[in-house]
Amino acid sequence: MVSKKQTSAKRKIRVGISIGDFNGVGLEVIINSFLDARMLEDCTPIVYGSTSLAKAYRKALDIQDFSFNFIDDADNANSKKVNLVNLWDEETEITFGESTKQAGKLSFLSLQAATHDLASNKIDVLVTAPINKNNIQSEEFDFPGHTEYLADYANVETPLMILAAGDLRVGTVTGHIPIKEVSENLYHDEIVTKLEIFEKALKQDFKITRPKIAVLGLNPHNGDNGTIGSEESEVIIPAIEEAVSKGLLVFGPFAADGFFGSPGYKNFDGILSMYHDQGLTPFKALSFDEGVNFTAGLPIVRTSPDHGTGYDIAGKGEASARSFRNAVYLAIDVYNNRSDYKELSAKPLKIKKARTSKNE
336 and 283 share a domain? Predict the structure, then answer.
């Protein structure tokens, strides 16, 4: 995925971290990531949680060689330590592997505080540990997931979820919706918009000058000329043609069942799938525990590990920190890449005219 050596030598980035569901593996992978002191060379981590929860968690997992720097505000973060903003004083009951109302409520409080500080420029990027999409639901959080919540907060109508691992980047047209609703939520304009967002993200966030994007079809065998469905001919192909007319390097549609079975997928900088599992199932089969969930199309930088709460292994010391660590590094890289992109766009390279002789 993203190695430490790839990050820019610019100032340390303030990485805000929401804890997710504390009965899952969120805090475990956060702590395990920052047990490696080299992480602090590139960022100042600021975790949003509580003093009592952090102490209880360390005790439950018998973590000896780690401690947070407890602060009451992100402005007081120590750049040489792993900071934790104390948000609440209520006692927390950790029941690993179980979904509880308290875990849902506090996971939202953590996300809300981190998002607010991101909007207030107290942190530079946001890395979100996994939430339980059921127990977090409330009047304040009525969304299918992080992506939709952050898009609403930023007043962005069309975000794009991208799963990234090295040179493999997979986006989805539709997000967290039931399979039976996918077809009716595929629109020409939506696909074109997602392709434009994808291309922009590949350019400004991943530093790819002329990105090539593959598009997957919806139906088996791309519908077999309408025998198994007409979405390809009526919606997907016209959207690809419009994107191409706008100068995007877009190819397809490709039949989804065999696309990742051959090395040809490696020829593309991005792959746009039609629905969640169509793109994420092969992605996770190829890159599980290494991939990162990145939300493109937002004015802020947000990443997350590519796994869920991990209830089945929570509290057992088995959770891998690789995906979370990669999420931190990708957030840092994207932030620096965007800064470079803005600077280059504001100051385009000027080519000097060749001198001519007086006799010409």
Answer: no
